[in-house]
Amino acid sequence: MVSTQVRPFDLAALIETAQEQKSLLEEKLPSLRGPRGGTTAAYQKGKKEVKHLERRIESLESLSRFTPSMRVSKNSSPTLTGIVESIGEDENSTPEVWVKWGDEEEATRSLPRELSPYEVPQPIAASDLPREPEEEVIYTWLDPNEIELAQGTQSRVAADAKAIGRYATEMMEERWDWKHDPPVIFDDGTTKRPGDGHHRINAAWLAKQQILCEVRSGTLIDAIRYSCSSNQRPSLHRTNADKRQAVEMMFATLIEEFGSLDDIPRTGRGKSRTEADWSNRRIAEHVGVSSKTVDNIYTELELNAKITHFTEGERIEVIEADNLPEEAVVGELGTVKAKDKKQGLWVDWDSREASFIHPDFVQKTDKAKPEPPAVENGIPQQQQETAPELNGKGKASAPPTSVEQETQQQAASVGLNGKGKQVLPDVPRNEAPESLSVSEEFSTTPPKPESAADLSADMKHITTTVVNNAKYFSREDLRVVIGVLVAEHGLDAIDEILEGLEKKAG
After folding, report:
1. Which of 16, 120, 341, 441 fits as disulfide partner to 304, beta carbons 3.0 to 4.6 Å?
2. Which 3 state secondary structure label does DSSP give 411?
3. Are 396 and 346 in contact (CB under 8 A)?
4. Both 282 and 388 in a single domain?
């Protein structure tokens, strides 16, 4: 492939266009949020597009360092030089520089990050060489009471009381080597805070001894970040909880410095290219943990930042989004019941069982939860009004005009035909015990009521029959019959009948 295949373009115009697109999208982002500032799929998509444009601008600007006919060198081999023939982009909009190296006849493709403008080295006098400013470090004896230990610079979850006691004993017995690895103290001119050595400082306080310290100039954030990296040394073993706390403290200092989790500079890939870049890998190297540990904690912090936009009791609605869970339906409603920093929002859905969902898939809504239908005698009122009882011939039964008629209707609904026989459904059933067919106690023939007393006896007879033959009825049949009996005669009367049956059975 030769340089003539590079697509010609106006570099300055492309950079200007990308910057304008980025500015317009950033202005539009706030309007893409959901009700009350919630996150929506459109907002997330817009943020990704902004980051894409930022990378494109950076990529295009990297090309501006090169011009045709410029001599360049390879970063991997500084002694190898060549002449730039052209610059451009490939079909994937990837910036590229075409260079003729040495005596080669054709130009070959390189990426901008692989090249540097070549400059003929000039001899420099040693006195002219720039010197790095040396950090002022002072070793001094401090009273432990001068050191502020209560401002959260300890990156361990808990102090080791046994280690403190052991150190204090060695100090009191003059066996302690004060000059070996003195604690590092950060002084902002007002407060002295430990970056490490918390156990040694506590031991010196317990032993009522001064302690030799390495004092540096620095703030609370400097002390915390130093503490998060210092405990990698094998003086005291770090637990997994200690490592997690150190990572969380690092993120807390970065959020304090840059404003939010999203605003932390993370443009570096692999090892950060500048001191301002704090990728997960760099944090892992700083704290001395695996990148996976930092990735997991970052994901939790990102989720926790999103669920803080929701409060318990708020109504939410599922929105269109990529990777929407299979059980979620766009437009379905629910109520936030709890929040979990690892799983998201615990939602009581209107149309299905409660479950967790990521806040990226929902937005706040003012739509109220529908009122459940009123229930009377265990039956929804709407069902009573809209589903009249059928008489077996496809017609609705007329409402009962008397207690006797209502009793007969309820008896008929569970298979009592009023003629001394029980009509069982035409499906296989267990055989009834022989005693049911010969015992007068289990007779299903109700006497004709002639008075209130006879009617009460009729209710007792029906109750007895239902209880003794319960295994032949469905749960719904039993609920209806017992519900009618309780409604007509009260729970006390039914209890009295059941107690009598229990005594007789005993």
Report:
1. 341
2. helix
3. no
4. no
